[in-house]
Amino acid sequence: MKNINFNIEQIYTGCLAQGAYYIISNGEAAIIDPLREIHPYLDRLERDEVKLKYIFETHFHADFVSGHLDLSKVTGAPIVYGPTAKPEFEAIIAEDNQIFEIGNIKIKALHTPGHTLESTTYLLIDENGKEHAIFSGDTLFIGDVGRPDLAQKAATMTQEQLAGTLFHSLRNKIMTLPNDVIVYPAHGAGSACGKNMSKETISTIGEQKEKNYALRANMTESEFVIEVLNGLTPPPAYFGMNVAMNKTGYNSFESVLNKGMKALTASEFETIAEEFDALILDTRNPAEFYLDYIPQSINIGIGGDFAPWVGALIGDVKQPILIVTDAGKEEETVTRLSRVGFDNILGHLQGGFATWKAAEKETDAIKRITAQQFAAEVNIDTDKVIDVRKEGEYSAEHLDEAYSKPLAYINNWINEIDPKEHFYIHCAGGYRSMIAASILQARGYRNFTEIEGGFNAIAKTDLPKSDFVCQSKVL
């Protein structure tokens, strides 16, 4: 958003559905909720010949590791948190309504607890005193609001109490702003920090009053609490660990990158995997992975929602990891792992999987068939079919008699599987089902068949399906 006296750039990262913000005015800059790798911000500062004055954090993020510490160390800019925040490093703890000046503009800290107790919305006021935009963090999304169940332990409050707090924050601090104030949230559709976020990443207060269910006029607090909490799924296991890293500190991104970029021969790779009980993470496309891979590898393709699935399924950010990537994808893989706190990367297989093959090491494969083959051989009445899509996708339409077993919960339902009973497994297009297949085989389950193309391809066959229901009605 360009203006004569200031400029706002939304830096959106699709994999995390996360928005950071870069603001400049009259030779000075501010950055809100930066990602962990800070070079893109440093490049912008150098390009624009401006000095970074403040690094604003809307809250202690759970779904990614922020770049606030590295950025502050390099630039000297102070980190700003909202009221009640207690980071274990030097920072400015703003008072409610405190003003920060950047060039010709002002940033006002509006304490908006509810998602977390320190959650703060930053209001940009232009040089004429006009309230121009808010950077709402996880307090207000486009079409949704932040989930209030993540801070229960730290806040010693129930999720219902936190939801009530959020209700008042929205109505007393945000909905009282002019309708033309622009809304810049920290996340969009795909983030686990909300349940009903829009694919749009910018809106206005007025539009949200009209379209956002949680900002409905005449809504009571009890109605708000019920609707906000309804349908929330358990948060991914890594969330608490990311909060701790953002609050207490972490290793520099450069040190993590240098460690992960260590190139290993096939023999070195094998030795380290055994010595450190390292998880082998293969980031190749599922269409390549299933044909041939290192035994016990887990496939999470770099081409999909890579980092969130790593966080959801591996969980422990301290888990030693070895990576197998396509040539040239090593740095991207390490970077995206570090964004969600997975810093214990012991290196990568130099030359990728081809190096392993050339060394004539043992390999494994997954049984995969096309949807047409599946349609020809399956008996819907007797064969077991497992659908690993989200509950909402399954509810919208699914194969008759298929079991709903979402990938996100595989660590819970895997032990319910009878290893002697053959089953078929699919997702929407093949990305998630290959993740599930690799986990199943790594844990000794081999009596199954994965379906290429997933439900998208199955739906084109004559196999019986449930009636379609719009997903917006079932999520």
Automatic annotation (TrEMBL):
Keywords: Hydrolase, Metal-binding. Residues 274-365, 379-467 form the Rhodanese domain. It comes from the Bacteria. Pfam families: Lactamase_B, Rhodanese. SMART domains: Lactamase_B, RHOD. GO terms for molecular function: hydrolase activity; metal ion binding; sulfur dioxygenase activity. One of its GO terms (biological process) is glutathione metabolic process. PANTHER family: PERSULFIDE DIOXYGENASE ETHE1, PERSULFIDE DIOXYGENASE ETHE1, MITOCHONDRIAL. This is MBL fold metallo-hydrolase.
